[in-house]
Amino acid sequence: MKEVYWTEVSIHQSSVYVGDSHDMHDFIGAYWSYEDMMDSPNVIGFNGLYGDAAIKAFDEHVRLTAAEWLTRHPEPPRIQT
After folding, report:
1. Exposure of 37 by Cβ count < 10 A (0-12 exposed, 13-18 middle, 19+ buried)?
2. How far apart are CA 26 and CA 29, in angstroms?
3. Is pTM, for the whole model, over 0.70?
């Protein structure tokens, strides 16, 4: 978050979701989802799973999301100055 979001993504206006200016909204949402699952593992889950099982399943979901993102964005973004 510190290296990508605060230095680049946060300075651009979003259309609907935070980070959508760079198509990174899924990653920002995942960051906060991990926080929620860690803070309340018996309350916040993923696909009907809770605790360590939810985190493991969510890990796979994030890996698939990252692979799809890399397919859509094979080149590094140009940083606007």
Report:
1. buried
2. 5
3. yes
